[in-house]
Amino acid sequence: GQNIDQPTEMTATEGAIVQINCTYQTSGFNGLFWYQQHAGEAPTFLSYNVLDGLEEKGRFSSFLSRSKGYSYLLLKELQMKDSASYLCAGMDSNYQLIWGAGTKLIIKP
Amino acid sequence: DAGITQSPRYKITETGRQVTLMCHQTWSHSYMFWYRQDLGHGLRLIYYSAAADITDKGEVPDGYVVSRSKTENFPLTLESATRSQTSVYFCASSSRENTEAFFGQGTRLTVV
């Protein structure tokens, strides 16, 4: 079956670094997406990885290992506004997104 | 205004009633999607559309109907609402099947 696993909740301190892990099992693979969702709002796109390696975008980076079925989202220099849920989604061979339940990130001052 | 908009933002309806959630996008994106989001679950795909007059079932289509007569609109109808359809519904669009999706603000539907 198809499955996305990510931690339910994480806590980190303002100014620190946090890594949110995601493991995936999809029928075929057409990429791995990360979205950010603030409470009561719509998800917004953060990153897309289809090749192995690290993609950096400012304070946010995303890593993919296709052989391990593993990705992580790295957030540096955490700010209070980064408190949100982070959604991992794998795209299968039919270009359907399989979504994880999301990781709620709590930032403490 | 450019973007993707959903209406209504909030809706309370009674069991057995028909209700339609609207979705409109101004980018002329080919692909449009309807998801539901429930606590403890990831987003679950209800229906999607690759172009006008082309729709297909997602993971949880039972009890829902969609249409897409125009590229910009993708309404979702609950034919006879049930309490299990209480959820937050998100519409999304993308230009291609493997690119980022843009989400509407969501509709919080409560079935009583």
What does this structure look like?
The complex is a heterodimer of chains A (109) and B (112). Chain A is globular, with a radius of gyration of 13 Å. Helix content of chain A is 0%, strand content 57%. Chain A is mostly beta strands and 109 residues long. Chain A is built from no helices and 11 strands. In chain A, a hairpin with a 5-residue loop joins β9 and β10. In chain A, the strands form 2 sheets. In chain A, strands 2, 4, 5, 9, 10 and 11 form a 6-stranded mixed sheet that branches. Chain A has a 5-stranded antiparallel sheet with strand order 1-3-8-7-6, with no helix packed on it. With 112 residues, chain B is mainly beta. In chain B, 0% of the residues lie in helices and 49% in strands. In chain B, strands 2, 4, 5, 6, 9, 10 and 11 form a 7-stranded mixed sheet that branches. A 4-stranded antiparallel sheet of chain B has the order 1-3-8-7, with no helix packed on it. The radius of gyration of chain B is 13 Å and the shape is globular. The termini of chain B are far apart. At the A-B interface, β5, β9 and β10 of A face β10 of B.
